[in-house]
Amino acid sequence: MKRILLTLLVTVAFVFGALAQSNYKPGYVVKANGDTLKGYINYKEWRTSPKFIDFKPALSQPEVSRFLPAMLRSFEVKNMDKYITYTGSLSADKNDLPDLPNYLDTTTRQDTVFMEVVYQGTPLSLLSHQDDVKRRLFVKEESEIPKELKYYQYIQTGLDGRSNIQVVNAYRTSLLRLAQKYNSANFQEITKPVRFISYTESDVSKILKLINNDKSETGTGNFGSRLFAGAAFAHIVTQFDGTNRFANQPYTTNFPRISAGVDLLFNKHTQKNYIRAELSFISISPSFYSSNQDSKADYYFSQKTITFTPQLVYSLYNKDKFKVFIGAGAGFNYSFYSNQKANYYSAYSSYTSSDMGYSLAHFWVNFPVQAGATIGRKIDIFTYYTGFTAFTTYGNFSIANKIYGAGLHYFFYK
């Protein structure tokens, strides 16, 4: 059984890994001359703004057209993302730790790039551009050229030699000017939240919606989440290792593990990469026996464990209705113990004591890996494995669990 599960884990993790990752979705492009072409765009989980896109007039057509920003006015993937082409100035400073400059860097560069439409409203819209340097937010006023909302961070060293991070929230001043220009009647109402917003798509979008008097509930950005519940078969091996009379006597438990959690999706459309936070429960009651010429002994205890497991999950093969994924993370375990008892018998005496058991840790950490397939965006079928992890702190021996198994998750989201 062990070999079957481990083989399945490895096989599922790497099958389809070498397959092409094209993901063509309905959409259109508007060329620089104004012509509109309808067809299919190879949609990806762009962590940075795309430097080009691949386009097909029809899925059955093998030829692919590649468009650079300067070749288009805009493109849109239906019901997903919209990008426009921007030619102009981009701030060139780094504004995130640990790569902060030691001076106020207001340098810029000229470029032609794709810029995502994060929120589209009237008269103001929010655009975003991300590259290897930073994320930039832009406001577009109807037919005008987008203008960057500036935000700087830098390190300043005082005369006493101490260094402090200085923040220049110029974007807040720009938003207040826009509020005064387009919604002076509600200026005081808008002023207060502007003073506290962060330089994020979500926060800035909320302010632009206030200025626009936009009461709609539509969300912004590609970030999403989904809840899930699951059940799995857990094969748990508990074993002493090291110098101990119970060493090398593995005890196995088969237990129906239950779990629930949430996936935080970097892109709710592709669902390719995400952070999974899962809470699960297992229970074991192992027993051990040892004998020699002079004595014999047995030892047993019950362990109930609640585990919180944050993981990073990556899809090796990613289609709408079928995905193959691998994941790894850390399991933070809290165990409750009961019924711990040790019985000792020798040629001279025998006794039973619950005081002569072992010191078992309540909190311990293991490192699980998993692999599986997502079917129809509703169900995960997966296998998982955790190597031997001790929940004792003795120097010459340990008591440890190893877990492997298989199960499924069911997702709850629209």
Sum this structure up briefly.
This protein has 414 residues and is mainly beta. It has helices spanning 2-14, 170-182, 187-194, 201-212; strands spanning 24-31, 36-42, 53-56, 65-67, 72-77, 82-91, 108-119, 124-130, 135-141, 147-149, 152-157, 163-168, 224-242, 251-265, 273-284, 287-291, 295-318, 322-329, 331-346, 350-353, 363-366, 369-375, 379-390, 397-412.
**Number of DSSP E strands:** 24
C-alpha geometry? elongated
Determine the fraction of residues in helical runs and give it as a percent range: 10-25%
Point out poorly predicted stretches.
Answer: 4-20
End-to-end separation in angstroms reads: 37 Å
- Provide a count of the helices: 4
The Rg value, from CA coordinates, equals: 29 Å
Order of strands side by side in the largest beta sheet? 4-3-2-1-5-6-7-8-9-10
* Whole-number mean pLDDT: 89
Quickly give the structural class: mainly beta
Q: Please provide the ordered H/E string of secondary-structure elements.
A: HEEEEEEEEEEEEHHHEEEEEEEEEEEE
The share of residues in extended strands comes to over 45%
Largest sheet: 10 strands, antiparallel
Write up what this structure looks like.
This protein is mainly beta and 414 residues long. It is 11% helix and 53% strand. It contains four helices and 24 strands. The strands form three sheets. Strands 4-3-2-1-5-6-7-8-9-10 form a ten-stranded antiparallel β-sheet. Strands 13-14-15-17-18-22-23-24 form an eight-stranded antiparallel beta barrel.
